[in-house]
Write a structure and sequence with these properties.
The chain has one domain. Helices cover 52% and strands 0% of the residues. The protein is built from four helices and no strands.
């Protein structure tokens, strides 16, 4: 069985869009649950080593905390994100239409 795959560019863009519209969210929020459901429909979670953890609301909240660390308006967040998160942040965060 395959491991949980890294976040794709498209998934990361959707997560940033969610962050830009809702900020950091908790695992039990409707926003985290909705994005989790949507992303889980894009990839069959049963093809991963841990279908329960695949893009679950906890993973969504964690991803949004990583974007909070890049946001100059935020005072806290995760200490380190991925190169892709940084690149996507630079590409889209200053776009008012995003």
């Amino acid at each position: 069985m395959a491991r949980i795959p890294p976040w794709s560019r498209e998934e990361t863009i959707l997560a940033l869009h969610t962050y830009m519209n809702h900020g950091r969210v908790r695992e039990n929020s409707v926003v985290a649950k909705e994005l989790s459901t949507y992303l889980r429909h894009l990839t069959d979670p049963h093809t991963t080593s841990d279908p329960i953890k695949f893009r679950n609301p906890d993973a969504i909240a964690l991803k949004l905390r990583k974007f909070a660390a890049l946001d100059p308006k935020e005072s806290s967040g995760m200490q380190k994100g991925s190169r892709m998160e940084l690149a996507i942040w630079k590409e889209f965060s200053s776009n008012p239409e995003f």
